[in-house]
Amino acid sequence: MEIMEDVVIVGAGIAGLATAVALKRVGVRALVLERSEGLRATGTALTLSPNAWLALDALGVSHKLIPLYTPSPKGYVTNVSTGEVREVLYPRQVRTLHRKVLLEALAEELATDSIRFSSRLVAFQSLEQGGDASMAAVHLEDGTTIKSKVLIGCDGVHSVVARWLGLAELVHSGRSAVRGLAVFPQGHGFKQEVRFFLDESDKAGFVPLNDRELYWFFSGQGEKMSGEAEKMQRDVLEKCTEKFPSEYLDVVRHADLSSLSWAPLMFRPPWGIIFGKLSKGNVTVAGDAMHPMTPDLGNGGGASLEDAVVLGRHIGNSFINNGALIVPGDMAKAIDDYVKERRWRAAMVVTASYLSGRMQQGDKWWIKFLRDRALYKYFFGWLSRLVFVYDCGRLPAISFGAMDLSSKKD
To answer: Is 362 a residue whose pLDDT tops 90?
Structure first.
């Protein structure tokens, strides 16, 4: 079977769904292909800072999320070796929320047939049409072929689309992380503050999501800790018992085992983003497919939302200027403009995240000196302002009257 679409987005994660919503706002229908049977919530929770909330404002969904979660105005970083505790002030509107709630809020904005689940991509090819114009043919495992005027890879860290574009391979940071939810049926009693605990090579922390749930993590150097959830929980407790305080250990003991996940912390080198080929004709990438990063500044989700708005703005302007038509040649320019706008911003955020993590988790004397003397007093505030104080802009207004090509269907 062969299908024709204007825009195909590979991956129904944050970047994929947000991009589909952005395109819907400018009158462009997109088909989202997701290999899973439903929305995936790997990672459990995420933190969104002011830059992410500005993007959600542009997408028209922030009002659904803000009432559900209380901001975290500050956090505390405890050096477990010295006992020193530092207070860290966060910008306004820093909230930690369930990843699945964000995905559902985005998916609710789309037409019921806009997301095609259980769609495994096995291959795709670019169909040149002369000049800069091109189309993409996506081949699915079930034998379906989808031809599209625009293809956007939002298919995560191990992106098939990014690999096809020839982007630099990922680099292992030398660290990995276990993440999960802790549930206290009677209430956990913690204030709405972020708590971090640092050892020479390990980092742990938690932040409340609501009165009964907390998001927690453990990041360390060393062996893989994947496997059964109970074993992951036991491994974390064994590594932390002699290092971290009892309040953190109690959080881990209250883990919802079904929420636990382990992953190596990977990133794409910033020079691979600056000099890499982030698009070819009408094919490009967004989110983790473009700029996978370590989670040390908690801005992976925010950067993906920024991508969606910027991509929606450039594609929307082309669509509107061409009388509500996807014109392949002009669309290639729109995608190129998107890449030019995002390239340096993405490389900077990846770099800032890596440096933040490197300075927090390292046993070299000079790293410990910088961490204890400069990181939270000077460097972290500068990094935060650089990353979080950013406005990705607004989407263009459409003026096609009743002609909304992406209106929701029953």
So the answer is: no
Q: Which residues, 6+ apart, have CB-to-CB distance to 67 below 8 Å?
A: none
Superfamily of domain covering 2-65+93-170+268-388: FAD/NAD(P)-binding domain (3.50.50.60)
Same CATH topology for 2-65+93-170+268-388 and 174-264: the answer is no
Angle at 144 (CA atoms; ends 141, 149), nearest 5 degrees: 115
- ∠ at Cα 178 (232, 45), nearest 5°? 125
Average pLDDT over residues 64-68: 96
Q: How confident is the model at residue 152 (pLDDT cuts 50, 70, 90)?
A: very high
Q: What residues are paired with 85 via a beta bridge?
A: 78
CATH 3.40.1000.20 is held by the domain 174-264 = no
**Percent of the chain as helix, strand, coil, to the nearest 5:** 40, 25, 35
Least Cα distance to 301 among 21, 6, 56, 32 occurs for 56
